[in-house]
Amino acid sequence: MKYYFLTEDSEKCLAPFFSKMVLTASFISVVIISIILLIFWPRQPLADFITVNKIPLAFFLIFAATLIIYSYVNLCCGSGDMIQRGYHIIKYRTDRSTFEKEIDFFRYGLIEFLLHTLILLLPFLPLLILAASISAVSLITFVQAVFILYTASLLCRMFGFMVYLFWGRLSTIGYFTARAFMIIFIFGTFIFAPYINPLQFLYLLNESPDAMGLPFVLYMAIVMFATLLLILTNHTLVRRHMNQEKTT
Amino acid sequence: MLLKSRNLMRQSHSNRSKVIIFAAALMVIFIPLPALSAAFSLDYALGLGGHFQLNTWTPLTVVLENRGRPTRGTLEVIVTSGSEYHQDVHQSTYAMDVDLPHNSKKRYAFAVMIKSFTHELIIRLKQNDTVIISKSINLRPHFTEKSFAVVADNFVSPDILSVLPKALYPVNVRPKFLPETWYGYDSVKLLIMRAAALKELRERQFQALTQWIKQGGYLVTTGGLNYGSLLEKRIQHILPINVFGHKRFFELKSLAQFCSQTLISEEPFLVLNVRIDNSNVLVKEKDIPLIFQKNLGFGQIFFLSFDYNTPPFSRWEGRKFFWDKILSMRPLIGDQGIVLENQKILDSMLAKIPVHFPGLKSGFIFIGMYLVFLRYFLKKIREPGKRRWENGFFLLLVITAFTTVGYWRFFYPNNKQKFTYNSFCQLDLSGLNTPASAKCILGLYALKKTAYRVDFGSFSYPVTHVLSKRLKKKIPNPYVLHENYNGLQIAGSLEEWSHSFYMIKSTFDSPLEGHALRDPHHLTIKVENKLPHKIVDCLIYFKKRFLVIDDIPANKQQTIKLKLSELKKTEIFNDHEAEQIINRFDINGSLSYLRTSQKNLTKDVLLRIHAKYKNKRDRLFLIGWVQAGVIQPEFKLTHPLGENLTLVNWELTVEMTS
């Protein structure tokens, strides 16, 4: 079994790990988070916060910004926006089948997505730990928040891939559907399902980290279940595509 | 058919048995609680003779009787203060561990601070969060705004209370209900008690009484005809009395000098002939001292050689004048030293919390370096080839290294110190051979939810919470004042990013001794510092000028000699001088707790000293700092990082020598 996403950055790969586009997106994301971190770095002494019983929001703000940027990058990776623009794409305005479509999802796409989502998170870690140190959250809270980032982004990636499997890379409906999903998941759920809203959850972790045991389990269970559904859907769609390829 | 009916009967019998067993089980579950509470009885004696003064420490004696099985639990007294209108209703809980064997009756003495009579006071016995017995007391009928004149005796003449000074609220208290802590006498201005009643006191009560007198209390006592109790060891300890028998009188004319009323009796009466070491005789009748005055610490003991409770004194018409005169001689403790506003002290303490944010500069350097490394390796791994994996490994190494540095340099220090404290004590000393009075504030700071237990050694101090005016919330974080035989413990909890302040006021034996002498050319100050720490950054104020003097070393005597001619060269104290003194504390870099407090408080202290002593030419004022607390907090559950600081204020009278 060849993991092309590690070795190739051709237009046959949905989001090759070492492609210029993915790496540039990753670096720009880190730069944006760094700027946000420096902007929200507390200028007042810590005593001022304790005096008025106020919790610094640096942890929430940085994690929220990371969540939005990191999930968006993953959504783009999943929906094929990060494909290397090779000869075929430039020459023809049609889609070309990728390895992710041609190889069984459990054996290729799923492994790639789990791994790539994790790798894309790593460059943020030094900045996230700085943000956590400002709000003085515990290591457990920090790990919980990192899990939230990872699961939320994985969900976006899985959804992005499902959109790609349904409508292809160039579809306008697909483009808007993927982004609408992300907006609904990250912002919309705050209104109709606050217990699965990752932003709300990050805010609560910042405010009262000790009281987040059960809500965290509930959030993780729901998001993981949704991710599992998407994995099964993606698997079915890839299978169908593979069968179609075989018959043609 | 018969078999069937027998079966039916057997079945119904079995059902009935099940019902009975079920009912019994229910009874087993539900009956113990009322049964347990029925085995207990709770009685109480609130305040002094059933009365208390608002905003003072009030004694509360709770008597628990257990006729059931042996029980251990916690006795709680809940005092509610504040008003709904101001949205500052909060509860202060005073607790004590109780151990009640079968058929036992025990007495538990509290001292509680009551600030409002509108809320009920609750006394309850709890066992593992289950309330066994509870009693609510309506405080409205019990409060008074006056201080008390207390006659502590089991038997008093019925009209003694009516002749006590009108400025006070006269009450009769049975000695067994007197407080067990010195601050339980907070509202008492005059305590009248026979020596026999003093003998009855429990050891803790006697210690509390002695301590109260030392801190400025006022006891009037008498031996009566039976003077055996005067020879008791504990009474001799506070009143070293020698008895030479009785003397018979028909009249006490000398009382006229004291209260402008003569005591004349048709029947002869007896007066004790006694002498008391180190005391003043205020009134004598034919060489027999009638009234003694003895100082004890800040307070005084008056000894009457006649019995106020028996005729002819109990029928004397001049009693009212006598007690008015007695009250007028009460030791008056003036304002001690310099009074710093609590809020200023709190601000100063908050300014130097032992934790801080990571510096922006170090954060900027960290982020900048990280971005440079990240950019370099991301660029490198783009290039296809064998070195891509190598560079990928280095990139992971860079991320790991920066994450690790971020953890140890920024994350871990703040995570380790999520609960910290600092304390500030102000120690006021005045003159020679007088106790020092101290006001200590303990500040506790938490970055995460924290439970804590803190005590101050075996001595019992009155602890109250202090709220910072900067805080919107007008109620304190929850805490319980847990009293036991080892002293008082504060058990409380703090929310994330919150603080709590507690204040203790007490007196100690003066840790400084010395005097100031002045001749035409020099001012000589002799100081002996008995503290285990040196007094630093000392200043003296004399003749409207502040002078910097050397540090006073620990456990040593030091002589400071100043030329008066040089003193005159120094500028008279003004705002500019104050700024110059404060600028001495300006040292570049991060300021220590000492320096921060000096910067924040010194100007205020100097201005107050100048305002108070500028016209007192025979007074000298010394201020100095000790980097330790006179009351040291001891933490039980946690070992937080913290610092203590004491500001020493010492007022001395300058004696003239030729």
Number of domains of chain B: 5
Percent in strands of chain B:
35-45%
Largest interface: A-B, 44 and 49 residues
**Tally of helical segments of chain B:** 13
Q: Supply the number of helical segments of chain A.
A: 12
What kind of assembly state do the chains in view correspond to? heterodimer
Strand content of chain A: under 5%
Q: Regions of chain A with pLDDT < 50 over 5+ consecutive residues?
A: none
Rg from alpha-carbon coordinates of chain A: 19 Å
The major pleated sheet of chain B works out as:
11 strands, mixed
End-to-end separation of chain A in angstroms reads 24 Å
Structural class of chain A: mainly alpha
Low-confidence stretches of chain B: none
Helicity range of chain A: over 70%
Structure description:
The complex is a heterodimer of chains A (248) and B (658). Chain A is mostly helical and 248 residues long. Chain A has one domain. In chain A, 72% of the residues lie in helices and 0% in strands. The longest helix of chain A is centred in the last third of the chain and has 35 residues, at 213-247. Chain A is elongated, with a radius of gyration of 19 Å. Chain A starts with a helix and ends with a helix. Chain B folds into 5 domains: 2-30; 36-143, Immunoglobulin-like (Sandwich), CATH 2.60.40.10; 146-328, Class I glutamine amidotransferase (GATase) domain (Rossmann fold), CATH 3.40.50; 360-416; 419-658, no CATH class. The longest helix of chain B is centred in the middle third of the chain and has 30 residues, at 387-416. The interface between A and B is large, with 44 and 49 residues.
